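Why does residue order matter? Because the sequence determines the fold. Keep that principle in mind as you read this record.
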Amino acid sequence: MSPFQARRGTRGPDRKAGLTASLVGILVVVAALALVSRLVPAQLAAFQHHSMTTPHFRSLAGLGVLLGDLGHTTLRMIAATVVGALLGACLALAAAKTPPVRGAVLTALGGMHMVPLLCLLPFLHLLGFEVSAIGITALCLAAPIASAALGAWSTIPRALDEAARGLGLTSWQRLWRLEAPYAIPDCVTALARTMPLAWSLLMAAEMLPVNGTLPTRPGLGTHAAQAAALGSFWECLLAAGLIGVLAFLYDSCLVFPWQIWADRYRLRPVFEHIADPWMLKLWRRTRLLKIAGEHMRRCLAWLGDMPIGRRGFRPSGATHTASPLIGLSSLAFALLIVMGFFYRHHALGLHDLVVVAEQSLVSALRMTLVLLLALALWLPLGVWLGLTARRAEIARMVTRFLALYPKNILFPLLCLGLTLLGLSRFVWPLVLCFFFIQWLLLAQILRGMRSFPVDLLQAAQNMQIRGWLWWRKIILPGIAPILLEAVSAASMTGWTILILAERSSWALHGEDGGGIGAYVARAIENGDLPRVVLGAAVITLCIALGEFMVWHPIRLQIRRRIPSSLSPPAK
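Structure:
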């Protein structure tokens, strides 16, 4: 079924409202970047295709240097996680509790989901290296957390809502006793699923040169970037190994225990058959930690019992349909701002539009090939691994780490290997992007097989349904919703990864594979803000076209044509 055929029967107020809000959000974000780039002309540099300036290298030798880099990266990720969670909670509360700003917040969230956040790096870099590294990672986490909270609040059961009203809870007490606990599992799940991209963005912020120089602040990404610039294979490999250890410990000590802990707030637990991780056991068996946790619980309970707000508050689960004139006028206004930025710009010309159009087609071809190759390889293997519980458990453990690992820290080493093999410049960005995306797809396929109805598989085995009929009638309809979400999310992530894959370097010799990602990477490297905005607008347009013309129509067709009993749960 082609995307144009899939669009039939998918028209309606929900789709039109979501489409308009997302387009407005995208244009607002791009317009804001455009205005900032015009207001800071002093940061512009000549757009030249040359290698970056040789930076002042710091010493990479010694255990103290490695421990310092490890500590700085850990603190940045912790700070980004806290800031992202707080920002996501504030956005969700603003959208849910303040009706006048609800539309603006939802529009901003729609834009944040599709704009490649790596393009914000040179703008945040104006505020300092730490702000740029932590800010990009926090923004990556904030939008999914806010969307998850809003989605959870819109599905609060009526029985719980009536119980809160019957108890006479104020709006503040309702928030702490009903809404926050109900949203915690979805928010933690969104945080865990976004962590792979967060680690990759943090490594990119520490590795990417901005305005012609490599970062010099301590960090494992900086260590790997400078080791690659010096041509030190072992130092780069050592930094890659340490970031793997750090990501594994961060997931084992914080993220996965949060998921297990948050499962208690679900009406239908997901991890009830999984043993508690060692971190939760340590917390429960350590006397000092138990006392600290008890004091924290009492403080939160006292805070939640404060009679603030009105009684009988009940947020409306139904969204008020806004007038289409408001959405169209906002869309036209944002479009005029973007067009005004590109019209008679002092640093851009018609030639730049021709260049980005050609380069975007090259990158779109690469992205299509990567998704097709990943699906052709891992769909049959993922289904085979998920059919047996033992194989599936081992595969999930391995895939969780491989999906979490920030593989872009290995891009310089892989680029060196692919160059030594003599592969074409068109091929090696495709290989790098495939190396990153394949594990994200495999993780989602295994998740779909875990929620697949076992009775249906046994019935198909008893009826001796095999071959292509088994795939067409049993497997593909069962995992189609999760598979489509996996491909859609992988394509959005892949456009960001193309910025890193199409422009990599070893020993200060930049390898340019062409494409819109290389265009944006060169602009970030030279501090050329107008071309960063132009590249970001084109990448956002490619993501939006893929979402609105392909993924969203097919998603609606799957919901219509596949029975709900075959559709796996969203969690």
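The radius of gyration is 24 Å.
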